[in-house]
Design a protein that fits this description.
This is Lasso RiPP family leader peptide-containing protein. This protein is mostly loops. The protein is built from 1 helix and 2 strands; from the N terminus they run H-E-E. A hairpin with a 7-residue loop joins strand 1 and strand 2.
Length: about 45
């Protein structure tokens, strides 16, 4: 049985978090609690 050689993790930069995750914008529609594609304007908040 051969032991696996340990390779230490490496931190690499792939850009700003907002750009990589699209976290910099809100978008125009919601999902999860509403049908896919529901525009924000159609949501009523109480």
């Amino acid at each position: 049985m051969t032991k696996a050689i340990y390779e230490a993790p490496v931190l690499r930069s792939h850009g700003k978090v907002e750009a990589v995750t699209k976290g910099g914008s809100t978008g125009t529609s919601l999902d999860a609690a509403f049908p896919v594609g529901t525009p924000f304007a159609d949501i009523t908040l109480s």
